[in-house]
Recover the amino acids of this structure.
C-alpha cells in the first residue's frame, strides 16, 4: 500500500493526466492502481489492461 510521499506522487500523476491526457491518463491509472492497491482481489490488472496503449 501507499507510504510516505505517495499522496503527493499520486497528486502529481493525476495532475499530469488532467493536463496531458491520453497516455498520461493511462500511466496515472496504472500508478494509482499499483501504489494504492485499488484492484479488487481476483480483478484484472491495470498494467495488463493498459499495456497495449502504453507501449504504442
Amino acid at each position: 500500500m501507499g507510504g510516505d510521499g505517495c499522496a503527493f506522487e499520486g497528486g502529481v500523476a493525476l495532475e499530469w493526466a488532467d493536463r496531458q491526457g491520453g497516455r498520461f491518463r493511462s500511466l496515472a491509472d496504472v500508478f494509482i492502481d499499483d501504489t494504492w492497491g485499488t484492484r479488487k482481489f481476483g480483478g484484472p490488472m491495470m498494467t495488463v489492461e493498459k499495456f497495449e496503449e502504453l507501449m504504442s
